[in-house]
């Protein structure tokens, strides 16, 4: 019986190792925009960061647990930046830190989101 359990456990672990690199992002651009919408005024004009903005930043960071999710969020932010030229990139760059969040990539229109881990 123990031998059978060991085999099943090994099979499950092998499947996890094989499937893990092929996970698909669960975050959508709609979710990214929804989380960051309270930040729009700050992103345009600077000043104080509203509490709902930081809540959104923290929520987005918590939702982006996998590499595909972080890559998707990165791409969505780049797309949003392009459609809102009034956003000041310097404000976007410092926003995570102002909300006490560390992200594994630099916020920039030049970031290669495919390299985000």
Name the features:
mainly alpha, 117 residues, Hydrophobic Seed Protein, 6 helices
Summarize the helices and strands and which ones pair or pack.
Blueprint: H1 2-19, H2 29-36, H3 40-45, H4 51-63, H5 67-83, H6 89-98
Describe the protein.
- The chain is mainly alpha-helical and about 120 residues long.
- It has one domain: Hydrophobic Seed Protein (Orthogonal Bundle), CATH 1.10.110.
- The chain is about 60% helix and about 0% strand.
- The protein is built from 6 helices and no strands.
- The longest helix is centred in the first third of the chain and has 18 residues, at about 1-20.
Summarize it:
The protein has 117 residues and is mostly helical.
Molecular shape: globular
Record field, number of beta strands = 0
The secondary-structure class comes to mainly alpha
Order of helices and strands: HHHHHH
CATH superfamily: Plant lipid-transfer and hydrophobic proteins
Please state the average pLDDT score: 84
Q: Work out the radius of gyration.
A: 18 Å
Main β-sheet: number of strands, strand sense, barrel status? none
What's the CATH topology label? Hydrophobic Seed Protein
Identify the CATH class.
Mainly Alpha
Please name the CATH architecture: Orthogonal Bundle
Q: Give the percentage of residues in beta strands.
A: under 5%
What proportion of the residues is helical, as a percent range?
55-70%
**Total count of helical runs of at least 4 residues:** 6
Kindly, what is the distance between the CA atoms of the first and last residues, rounded to a whole number of angstroms?
40 Å
Model regions low in confidence, pLDDT < 50 over at least 5 residues: 4-20
Counted up, domains total 1
